Amino acid sequence: MSEPSPLGAYSSRRGPLHALLPGAKLLMLFVFAVLAVALRGPGWTTLWLGIAAALIGLAGMGWRDFVRVARSFGIVAVLLFVFTAASAAISEAGGWGSFPPADAWAAGALRGYGVVGSLFALILAASAVTASTAIEDMTDTVTWAIGPLRRFGAQPERVALAFSLVIRAIPTTIGIARETRDAARARGLERSPRARVVPLVIRTVAQAHATGEALAARGIGDDEAAGRD
Amino acid sequence: MIEFRDATVVAPGLDGDTTILHPTILTLREQRVSVIGGNGSGKSTLARLINGLVEPTAGAVRVGGSAGAGAAPAAATPDQLLDTRQDGPAVRRTVGFVFTDPAAQLIMPTVIEDVALSLRRTHRVKSERQAAALEVLGRFGLAALADRSVHTLSGGQKQLLAIATVLASDPAILVADEPTTLLDLRNARRIGDLLMSLPQQVLTVTHDLDLAARADRTLVVEAGRVVFDGTPADAIAHYRERALR
Protein backbone atom coordinates (compact mmCIF):
# COMPACT_ATOMS: atom_id res chain seq x y z
CA MET A 1 0.00 0.00 0.00
CA SER A 2 1.39 3.41 -0.92
CA GLU A 3 2.00 6.13 1.62
CA PRO A 4 -0.81 8.64 2.17
CA SER A 5 -0.30 11.93 0.34
CA PRO A 6 0.75 14.89 2.51
CA LEU A 7 -1.69 17.07 0.52
CA GLY A 8 -4.35 18.24 2.96
CA ALA A 9 -2.97 16.05 5.76
CA TYR A 10 -1.92 17.20 9.22
CA SER A 11 1.67 16.44 10.22
CA SER A 12 2.43 15.75 13.87
CA ARG A 13 6.13 16.53 13.22
CA ARG A 14 6.14 19.97 14.75
CA GLY A 15 7.66 22.96 13.02
CA PRO A 16 7.57 26.69 13.81
CA LEU A 17 4.32 27.11 11.80
CA HIS A 18 2.50 24.86 14.28
CA ALA A 19 2.85 27.58 16.93
CA LEU A 20 0.98 30.20 14.89
CA LEU A 21 -2.75 30.74 15.36
CA PRO A 22 -4.85 29.03 12.64
CA GLY A 23 -6.54 32.34 11.81
CA ALA A 24 -3.16 34.00 11.24
CA LYS A 25 -2.08 31.18 8.95
CA LEU A 26 -5.30 31.32 6.93
CA LEU A 27 -4.93 35.10 6.59
CA MET A 28 -1.31 34.74 5.48
CA LEU A 29 -2.31 32.11 2.95
CA PHE A 30 -5.00 34.43 1.60
CA VAL A 31 -2.53 37.31 1.25
CA PHE A 32 0.02 34.99 -0.36
CA ALA A 33 -2.59 33.77 -2.86
CA VAL A 34 -3.62 37.30 -3.78
CA LEU A 35 0.00 38.36 -4.32
CA ALA A 36 0.85 35.23 -6.30
CA VAL A 37 -2.05 35.87 -8.65
CA ALA A 38 -1.52 39.64 -8.89
CA LEU A 39 2.26 39.76 -9.33
CA ARG A 40 3.20 37.59 -12.27
CA GLY A 41 6.38 36.97 -14.18
CA PRO A 42 9.29 34.53 -13.92
CA GLY A 43 11.04 36.51 -11.19
CA TRP A 44 7.96 36.77 -9.02
CA THR A 45 7.17 33.09 -9.58
CA THR A 46 10.66 32.10 -8.44
CA LEU A 47 10.15 34.24 -5.33
CA TRP A 48 6.75 32.60 -4.57
CA LEU A 49 8.26 29.15 -5.03
CA GLY A 50 11.10 30.03 -2.68
CA ILE A 51 8.71 31.32 -0.01
CA ALA A 52 6.46 28.27 -0.40
CA ALA A 53 9.42 25.89 -0.10
CA ALA A 54 10.48 27.71 3.08
CA LEU A 55 6.92 27.35 4.45
CA ILE A 56 7.08 23.61 3.81
CA GLY A 57 10.23 23.49 5.93
CA LEU A 58 8.66 25.65 8.64
CA ALA A 59 5.68 23.27 8.76
CA GLY A 60 8.00 20.43 9.72
CA MET A 61 7.57 18.70 6.36
CA GLY A 62 10.64 17.04 4.91
CA TRP A 63 12.12 16.72 1.44
CA ARG A 64 10.16 13.51 0.83
CA ASP A 65 6.88 15.31 1.56
CA PHE A 66 7.90 18.04 -0.89
CA VAL A 67 8.56 15.44 -3.59
CA ARG A 68 5.27 13.65 -2.88
CA VAL A 69 3.31 16.92 -3.20
CA ALA A 70 5.15 17.63 -6.45
CA ARG A 71 4.36 14.15 -7.77
CA SER A 72 0.68 14.58 -6.91
CA PHE A 73 0.67 17.75 -9.00
CA GLY A 74 2.93 16.30 -11.73
CA ILE A 75 0.50 15.28 -14.48
CA VAL A 76 -1.66 18.39 -14.09
CA ALA A 77 1.49 20.55 -14.07
CA VAL A 78 2.81 19.06 -17.33
CA LEU A 79 -0.54 19.38 -19.11
CA LEU A 80 -1.05 22.93 -17.84
CA PHE A 81 2.48 23.94 -18.79
CA VAL A 82 2.15 22.56 -22.33
CA PHE A 83 -1.23 24.21 -22.83
CA THR A 84 -0.14 27.59 -21.42
CA ALA A 85 3.19 27.63 -23.23
CA ALA A 86 1.66 26.62 -26.57
CA SER A 87 -1.20 29.13 -26.26
CA ALA A 88 1.22 31.93 -25.38
CA ALA A 89 3.61 30.99 -28.20
CA ILE A 90 0.81 30.94 -30.78
CA SER A 91 -0.53 34.22 -29.49
CA GLU A 92 2.99 35.74 -29.57
CA ALA A 93 3.39 34.62 -33.19
CA GLY A 94 0.18 36.40 -34.17
CA GLY A 95 -2.19 33.48 -34.37
CA TRP A 96 -2.53 30.13 -36.19
CA GLY A 97 -1.20 31.40 -39.54
CA SER A 98 2.36 30.12 -39.14
CA PHE A 99 4.38 27.89 -36.82
CA PRO A 100 5.66 30.05 -33.91
CA PRO A 101 9.38 30.93 -34.08
CA ALA A 102 11.83 29.97 -31.34
CA ASP A 103 11.56 33.29 -29.47
CA ALA A 104 7.77 32.91 -29.31
CA TRP A 105 8.23 29.43 -27.80
CA ALA A 106 10.72 30.85 -25.29
CA ALA A 107 8.20 33.51 -24.26
CA GLY A 108 5.52 30.82 -24.05
CA ALA A 109 7.72 28.65 -21.86
CA LEU A 110 8.28 31.55 -19.49
CA ARG A 111 4.53 32.16 -19.36
CA GLY A 112 3.95 28.47 -18.65
CA TYR A 113 6.56 28.56 -15.88
CA GLY A 114 4.81 31.60 -14.38
CA VAL A 115 1.38 29.97 -14.33
CA VAL A 116 2.43 26.47 -13.25
CA GLY A 117 5.05 27.74 -10.81
CA SER A 118 2.63 30.11 -9.09
CA LEU A 119 0.01 27.39 -8.84
CA PHE A 120 2.55 24.95 -7.42
CA ALA A 121 3.67 27.60 -4.91
CA LEU A 122 0.04 28.01 -3.80
CA ILE A 123 -0.35 24.24 -3.41
CA LEU A 124 2.84 24.07 -1.35
CA ALA A 125 1.75 26.99 0.85
CA ALA A 126 -1.70 25.45 1.37
CA SER A 127 -0.06 22.11 2.22
CA ALA A 128 2.14 23.88 4.78
CA VAL A 129 -0.97 25.38 6.40
CA THR A 130 -2.90 22.09 6.51
CA ALA A 131 0.20 20.19 7.69
CA SER A 132 0.69 22.57 10.61
CA THR A 133 -2.96 23.07 11.62
CA ALA A 134 -5.15 20.40 13.17
CA ILE A 135 -8.50 20.20 11.42
CA GLU A 136 -10.27 20.79 14.72
CA ASP A 137 -8.40 24.08 15.20
CA MET A 138 -9.24 25.04 11.63
CA THR A 139 -12.90 24.18 12.24
CA ASP A 140 -12.98 26.29 15.41
CA THR A 141 -11.41 29.22 13.57
CA VAL A 142 -13.87 29.06 10.68
CA THR A 143 -16.77 28.75 13.14
CA TRP A 144 -15.53 31.82 15.00
CA ALA A 145 -14.94 33.82 11.82
CA ILE A 146 -18.41 33.11 10.46
CA GLY A 147 -20.06 33.55 13.86
CA PRO A 148 -21.16 37.18 13.25
CA LEU A 149 -23.07 36.06 10.14
CA ARG A 150 -25.33 33.87 12.30
CA ARG A 151 -27.85 36.73 12.54
CA PHE A 152 -28.17 36.62 8.73
CA GLY A 153 -29.03 32.92 8.78
CA ALA A 154 -25.53 31.49 8.36
CA GLN A 155 -24.79 28.20 10.15
CA PRO A 156 -21.12 28.48 11.17
CA GLU A 157 -20.91 24.91 12.48
CA ARG A 158 -22.08 23.49 9.19
CA VAL A 159 -19.82 25.73 7.12
CA ALA A 160 -16.85 24.75 9.30
CA LEU A 161 -17.76 21.07 9.02
CA ALA A 162 -17.99 21.36 5.23
CA PHE A 163 -14.61 23.15 5.23
CA SER A 164 -12.97 20.37 7.22
CA LEU A 165 -14.58 17.67 5.09
CA VAL A 166 -13.19 19.26 1.92
CA ILE A 167 -9.68 19.25 3.41
CA ARG A 168 -10.16 15.69 4.64
CA ALA A 169 -11.37 14.64 1.17
CA ILE A 170 -8.09 15.58 -0.53
CA PRO A 171 -5.88 12.75 0.81
CA THR A 172 -8.82 10.34 0.69
CA THR A 173 -9.45 11.06 -3.00
CA ILE A 174 -5.75 10.79 -3.81
CA GLY A 175 -5.71 7.42 -2.02
CA ILE A 176 -8.70 6.22 -4.07
CA ALA A 177 -6.98 7.39 -7.26
CA ARG A 178 -3.87 5.34 -6.38
CA GLU A 179 -5.90 2.24 -5.58
CA THR A 180 -7.83 2.63 -8.83
CA ARG A 181 -4.58 3.01 -10.76
CA ASP A 182 -3.15 -0.12 -9.10
CA ALA A 183 -6.32 -2.08 -9.85
CA ALA A 184 -6.13 -1.02 -13.52
CA ARG A 185 -2.45 -2.05 -13.63
CA ALA A 186 -3.25 -5.41 -12.05
CA ARG A 187 -5.67 -6.08 -14.88
CA GLY A 188 -3.24 -4.86 -17.53
CA LEU A 189 -5.40 -1.81 -18.24
CA GLU A 190 -2.97 0.90 -17.13
CA ARG A 191 -3.29 2.67 -20.50
CA SER A 192 -7.09 2.70 -20.45
CA PRO A 193 -8.46 6.06 -19.28
CA ARG A 194 -11.86 4.44 -18.76
CA ALA A 195 -10.44 1.80 -16.42
CA ARG A 196 -8.89 4.54 -14.30
CA VAL A 197 -11.43 7.36 -14.45
CA VAL A 198 -14.78 5.54 -14.18
CA PRO A 199 -13.94 3.59 -10.98
CA LEU A 200 -12.33 6.71 -9.53
CA VAL A 201 -15.50 8.76 -10.04
CA ILE A 202 -17.77 5.98 -8.79
CA ARG A 203 -15.65 5.26 -5.71
CA THR A 204 -15.27 8.95 -4.89
CA VAL A 205 -19.03 9.45 -5.01
CA ALA A 206 -19.51 6.27 -2.96
CA GLN A 207 -16.98 7.55 -0.42
CA ALA A 208 -18.84 10.86 -0.21
CA HIS A 209 -22.10 8.96 0.31
CA ALA A 210 -20.55 6.79 3.03
CA THR A 211 -19.15 9.86 4.77
CA GLY A 212 -22.57 11.50 4.65
CA GLU A 213 -24.12 8.37 6.10
CA ALA A 214 -21.52 8.24 8.87
CA LEU A 215 -22.15 11.89 9.71
CA ALA A 216 -25.90 11.27 9.82
CA ALA A 217 -25.49 8.15 11.97
CA ARG A 218 -23.36 10.09 14.47
CA GLY A 219 -25.87 12.95 14.54
CA ILE A 220 -23.19 15.42 13.44
CA GLY A 221 -24.81 18.50 11.98
CA ASP A 222 -28.11 17.78 13.74
CA ASP A 223 -27.84 20.89 15.80
CA GLU A 224 -25.80 24.05 16.06
CA ALA A 225 -23.95 23.68 19.27
CA ALA A 226 -20.23 23.67 19.66
CA GLY A 227 -18.35 26.79 20.58
CA ARG A 228 -14.72 27.74 21.09
CA ASP A 229 -12.43 28.73 23.87
CA MET B 1 -35.69 -0.93 24.06
CA ILE B 2 -36.35 -1.23 20.32
CA GLU B 3 -39.81 -1.59 18.91
CA PHE B 4 -40.86 -2.36 15.32
CA ARG B 5 -44.53 -1.69 14.70
CA ASP B 6 -45.39 -3.15 11.33
CA ALA B 7 -42.21 -1.50 10.04
CA THR B 8 -41.96 -1.90 6.29
CA VAL B 9 -39.39 -0.73 3.78
CA VAL B 10 -40.26 -0.58 0.11
CA ALA B 11 -37.82 0.71 -2.50
CA PRO B 12 -39.28 2.16 -5.68
CA GLY B 13 -37.70 1.02 -8.92
CA LEU B 14 -38.16 1.27 -12.67
CA ASP B 15 -39.50 -2.28 -12.76
CA GLY B 16 -41.87 -1.68 -9.86
CA ASP B 17 -41.49 -1.53 -6.10
CA THR B 18 -39.23 -3.93 -4.22
CA THR B 19 -40.02 -4.82 -0.64
CA ILE B 20 -36.77 -4.78 1.31
CA LEU B 21 -38.41 -5.47 4.67
CA HIS B 22 -41.90 -6.91 4.95
CA PRO B 23 -44.13 -5.67 7.81
CA THR B 24 -42.23 -6.52 10.97
CA ILE B 25 -43.43 -6.52 14.55
CA LEU B 26 -40.76 -6.85 17.23
CA THR B 27 -40.06 -5.66 20.75
CA LEU B 28 -36.41 -6.04 21.73
CA ARG B 29 -35.68 -5.57 25.41
CA GLU B 30 -32.73 -7.96 25.72
CA GLN B 31 -29.29 -6.52 26.47
CA ARG B 32 -27.66 -8.48 23.59
CA VAL B 33 -29.48 -9.14 20.34
CA SER B 34 -27.89 -10.67 17.26
CA VAL B 35 -29.24 -10.72 13.72
CA ILE B 36 -28.08 -13.33 11.21
CA GLY B 37 -29.05 -14.16 7.65
CA GLY B 38 -27.73 -14.38 4.12
CA ASN B 39 -26.36 -11.58 1.96
CA GLY B 40 -29.12 -9.27 0.75
CA SER B 41 -31.65 -10.72 3.20
CA GLY B 42 -32.54 -7.34 4.74
CA LYS B 43 -30.45 -7.54 7.93
CA SER B 44 -28.68 -4.23 7.36
CA THR B 45 -31.94 -2.48 6.49
CA LEU B 46 -33.40 -3.73 9.75
CA ALA B 47 -30.36 -2.38 11.60
CA ARG B 48 -30.39 0.97 9.81
CA LEU B 49 -34.05 1.49 10.70
CA ILE B 50 -33.09 1.58 14.37
CA ASN B 51 -30.78 4.60 13.98
CA GLY B 52 -33.05 6.36 11.48
CA LEU B 53 -30.56 5.96 8.62
CA VAL B 54 -33.42 4.26 6.80
CA GLU B 55 -36.97 5.38 7.47
CA PRO B 56 -39.85 2.92 7.29
CA THR B 57 -42.14 3.52 4.32
CA ALA B 58 -44.98 2.18 6.45
CA GLY B 59 -45.34 1.41 10.14
CA ALA B 60 -42.92 2.77 12.70
CA VAL B 61 -39.70 2.05 14.55
CA ARG B 62 -39.35 3.39 18.08
CA VAL B 63 -36.37 3.32 20.40
CA GLY B 64 -35.74 4.29 23.98
CA GLY B 65 -33.69 3.89 27.06
CA SER B 66 -32.10 6.40 29.35
CA ALA B 67 -29.12 8.01 27.70
CA GLY B 68 -25.97 6.93 29.43
CA ALA B 69 -24.12 3.73 29.77
CA GLY B 70 -25.50 1.37 32.33
CA ALA B 71 -29.12 2.34 31.86
CA ALA B 72 -31.19 -0.80 31.61
CA PRO B 73 -32.73 -0.87 28.12
CA ALA B 74 -35.80 -2.67 29.38
CA ALA B 75 -36.50 0.24 31.74
CA ALA B 76 -37.94 2.42 28.99
CA THR B 77 -41.70 2.45 28.90
CA PRO B 78 -43.57 2.54 25.58
CA ASP B 79 -44.69 6.16 26.07
CA GLN B 80 -41.05 7.26 26.48
CA LEU B 81 -39.98 5.82 23.14
CA LEU B 82 -38.73 8.02 20.31
CA ASP B 83 -40.05 7.63 16.79
CA THR B 84 -37.18 7.32 14.29
CA ARG B 85 -39.14 9.28 11.69
CA GLN B 86 -40.25 12.14 13.90
CA ASP B 87 -37.46 12.45 16.46
CA GLY B 88 -34.38 12.12 14.22
CA PRO B 89 -31.78 14.06 16.25
CA ALA B 90 -32.92 12.56 19.57
CA VAL B 91 -32.89 9.07 18.04
CA ARG B 92 -29.31 9.53 16.82
CA ARG B 93 -28.29 10.64 20.29
CA THR B 94 -29.92 7.52 21.71
CA VAL B 95 -28.70 5.00 19.13
CA GLY B 96 -25.07 4.73 18.08
CA PHE B 97 -24.24 2.96 14.83
CA VAL B 98 -21.06 1.11 13.89
CA PHE B 99 -20.51 0.35 10.20
CA THR B 100 -18.80 -2.67 8.64
CA ASP B 101 -15.96 -0.60 7.19
CA PRO B 102 -14.52 1.69 9.86
CA ALA B 103 -12.63 3.65 7.20
CA ALA B 104 -15.94 5.04 5.99
CA GLN B 105 -16.93 5.99 9.50
CA LEU B 106 -13.77 7.82 10.54
CA ILE B 107 -14.10 11.36 9.32
CA MET B 108 -11.28 13.40 10.80
CA PRO B 109 -7.57 12.98 10.00
CA THR B 110 -6.29 12.04 13.45
CA VAL B 111 -7.52 9.67 16.11
CA ILE B 112 -8.17 12.29 18.80
CA GLU B 113 -9.88 14.68 16.37
CA ASP B 114 -12.36 12.01 15.37
CA VAL B 115 -13.35 11.32 18.97
CA ALA B 116 -13.48 15.06 19.67
CA LEU B 117 -15.89 15.47 16.74
CA SER B 118 -18.37 13.24 18.58
CA LEU B 119 -17.98 15.40 21.68
CA ARG B 120 -18.55 18.83 20.11
CA ARG B 121 -22.19 18.79 21.09
CA THR B 122 -21.57 18.04 24.75
CA HIS B 123 -18.20 19.71 25.38
CA ARG B 124 -18.17 23.26 24.07
CA VAL B 125 -14.80 24.29 25.43
CA LYS B 126 -11.93 22.89 23.41
CA SER B 127 -9.65 22.04 26.34
CA GLU B 128 -12.46 20.11 28.04
CA ARG B 129 -13.28 18.38 24.76
CA GLN B 130 -9.66 17.31 24.30
CA ALA B 131 -9.49 15.99 27.87
CA ALA B 132 -12.74 14.07 27.41
CA ALA B 133 -11.53 12.66 24.08
CA LEU B 134 -8.31 11.47 25.71
CA GLU B 135 -10.31 9.88 28.50
CA VAL B 136 -12.44 8.01 25.93
CA LEU B 137 -9.31 6.86 24.07
CA GLY B 138 -7.80 5.70 27.35
CA ARG B 139 -10.90 3.65 28.09
CA PHE B 140 -10.42 1.77 24.82
CA GLY B 141 -6.64 1.44 25.09
CA LEU B 142 -6.08 3.89 22.24
CA ALA B 143 -4.54 6.82 24.15
CA ALA B 144 -1.07 6.15 22.74
CA LEU B 145 -2.45 6.56 19.22
CA ALA B 146 -4.14 9.91 19.89
CA ASP B 147 -2.09 11.92 17.38
CA ARG B 148 -1.78 9.18 14.77
CA SER B 149 -3.40 9.58 11.36
CA VAL B 150 -6.45 7.33 11.06
CA HIS B 151 -5.02 6.14 7.71
CA THR B 152 -2.09 4.48 9.46
CA LEU B 153 -4.11 2.37 11.93
CA SER B 154 -4.57 -1.36 11.52
CA GLY B 155 -8.03 -2.73 10.70
CA GLY B 156 -8.60 -3.77 14.31
CA GLN B 157 -7.51 -0.38 15.64
CA LYS B 158 -9.78 1.40 13.14
CA GLN B 159 -12.81 -0.64 14.20
CA LEU B 160 -11.97 -0.10 17.87
CA LEU B 161 -11.68 3.64 17.20
CA ALA B 162 -14.97 3.64 15.26
CA ILE B 163 -16.70 2.06 18.26
CA ALA B 164 -14.98 4.53 20.61
CA THR B 165 -16.17 7.52 18.55
CA VAL B 166 -19.74 6.23 18.73
CA LEU B 167 -19.63 5.42 22.44
CA ALA B 168 -18.02 8.78 23.24
CA SER B 169 -21.47 10.37 23.14
CA ASP B 170 -22.80 7.70 25.51
CA PRO B 171 -25.79 6.34 23.59
CA ALA B 172 -28.27 4.00 25.27
CA ILE B 173 -28.29 1.57 22.34
CA LEU B 174 -25.50 0.46 20.01
CA VAL B 175 -26.21 -1.07 16.62
CA ALA B 176 -23.26 -2.76 14.89
CA ASP B 177 -23.59 -3.79 11.26
CA GLU B 178 -21.16 -6.66 10.62
CA PRO B 179 -18.46 -5.11 12.81
CA THR B 180 -16.05 -8.05 12.52
CA THR B 181 -16.41 -8.91 8.83
CA LEU B 182 -13.18 -7.18 7.76
CA LEU B 183 -11.12 -8.30 10.75
CA ASP B 184 -8.76 -11.20 11.39
CA LEU B 185 -9.58 -13.81 14.02
CA ARG B 186 -7.76 -12.09 16.90
CA ASN B 187 -9.29 -8.66 16.22
CA ALA B 188 -12.74 -10.15 15.57
CA ARG B 189 -12.54 -11.79 18.99
CA ARG B 190 -11.36 -8.55 20.59
CA ILE B 191 -14.21 -6.51 19.07
CA GLY B 192 -16.70 -9.23 19.96
CA ASP B 193 -15.52 -9.26 23.58
CA LEU B 194 -15.85 -5.47 23.70
CA LEU B 195 -19.39 -5.47 22.28
CA MET B 196 -20.46 -8.17 24.74
CA SER B 197 -19.01 -6.26 27.70
CA LEU B 198 -20.73 -2.92 27.04
CA PRO B 199 -23.40 -1.67 29.43
CA GLN B 200 -25.49 -0.48 26.46
CA GLN B 201 -28.14 -2.53 24.73
CA VAL B 202 -26.26 -3.91 21.71
CA LEU B 203 -27.79 -5.23 18.49
CA THR B 204 -25.22 -6.90 16.26
CA VAL B 205 -25.78 -7.88 12.65
CA THR B 206 -23.23 -10.54 11.84
CA HIS B 207 -22.11 -13.49 9.74
CA ASP B 208 -19.91 -14.59 12.64
CA LEU B 209 -22.00 -17.32 14.21
CA ASP B 210 -19.70 -17.52 17.24
CA LEU B 211 -20.42 -13.86 17.93
CA ALA B 212 -24.14 -14.32 17.27
CA ALA B 213 -24.18 -17.20 19.76
CA ARG B 214 -23.11 -14.86 22.57
CA ALA B 215 -26.36 -12.87 22.40
CA ASP B 216 -29.44 -13.25 24.58
CA ARG B 217 -31.75 -13.38 21.59
CA THR B 218 -31.16 -13.97 17.88
CA LEU B 219 -33.22 -13.07 14.86
CA VAL B 220 -32.85 -14.84 11.52
CA VAL B 221 -33.71 -12.66 8.52
CA GLU B 222 -34.44 -14.09 5.11
CA ALA B 223 -35.88 -12.38 2.02
CA GLY B 224 -36.93 -9.33 4.02
CA ARG B 225 -38.68 -11.25 6.78
CA VAL B 226 -37.74 -12.25 10.31
CA VAL B 227 -38.19 -16.00 9.84
CA PHE B 228 -36.94 -17.08 13.25
CA ASP B 229 -36.78 -15.34 16.62
CA GLY B 230 -35.45 -17.20 19.61
CA THR B 231 -32.41 -18.35 21.51
CA PRO B 232 -29.07 -18.13 19.68
CA ALA B 233 -28.61 -21.90 19.63
CA ASP B 234 -32.01 -22.54 18.06
CA ALA B 235 -31.68 -19.59 15.67
CA ILE B 236 -28.25 -20.69 14.45
CA ALA B 237 -29.45 -24.26 13.97
CA HIS B 238 -32.41 -22.92 12.00
CA TYR B 239 -30.16 -20.69 9.88
CA ARG B 240 -27.65 -23.48 9.17
CA GLU B 241 -30.39 -25.85 8.19
CA ARG B 242 -32.00 -23.41 5.77
CA ALA B 243 -28.80 -21.93 4.39
CA LEU B 244 -27.15 -25.28 3.66
CA ARG B 245 -30.27 -27.00 2.43
Share of helical residues of chain B: 25-40%
Spatial strand sequence of the major β-sheet of chain B: 6-7-8-3-9-10
Largest sheet of chain A: none
**What is the number of helices of chain B?**
9
Quaternary organisation of the protein chains: heterodimer
Extract low-pLDDT stretches of chain A. Answer: 224-229
If you compute it from the alpha carbons, what radius of gyration of chain A comes out, rounded to the nearest whole angstrom?
A: 21 Å
Q: Average pLDDT across residues of chain A?
A: 84
Q: What's the number of domains of chain B? A: 1
Sheet-strand content of chain A, in percent, reads under 5%
Strand content of chain B: 15-25%
Could you please say which CATH topology of chain B applies here?
A: Rossmann fold
Inertia-based shape of chain A:
globular
Gyration radius of chain B, in Å: 18 Å
Question: CATH architecture of chain B, please?
Answer: 3-Layer(aba) Sandwich
Query: What is the helical fraction of chain A, as a range of percent?
Result: over 70%
Instruction: Report how far the terminal alpha carbons of chain A are from each other.
Output: 39 Å
Strand tally of chain B is: 10
Mean pLDDT score of chain B: 90
Describe this structure in words.
Chain A is mainly α. In chain A, 71% of the residues lie in helices and 0% in strands. In chain A, helix 3 packs antiparallel against helix 4. Chain B has 245 residues and is an alpha/beta fold. Chain B has one domain: Rossmann fold, CATH 3.40.50. Helices cover 35% and strands 25% of the residues of chain B. Chain B has helices at residues 43-51, 88-94, 102-105, 111-119, 126-139, 155-167, 185-197, 209-212, 232-243; strands at 2-11, 18-28, 32-37, 58-63, 82-83, 95-98, 173-177, 201-205, 217-222, 225-230. A six-stranded mixed beta sheet of chain B has the order 6-7-8-3-9-10, with helices on both faces. A four-stranded antiparallel beta sheet of chain B has the order 2-1-4-5, covered by helices on one side. In chain B, strand 1 (2-11) and strand 2 (18-28) form a beta hairpin. In chain B, helix 4 crosses helix 5 (126-139), helix 4 (111-119) runs parallel beside helix 6 and helix 6 (155-167) packs parallel to helix 7 (185-197). The A-B interface holds A 4, 9-10, 12, 134-136, 140, 157, 164-165, 168, 171, 175, 207, 210-211, 213-220, 222-223, 225-229 and B 51-53, 88-89, 92-93, 96-97, 99, 101, 104-110, 113, 116-118, 120-121, 124-127, 147-149, 151-152, 165-166, 169.
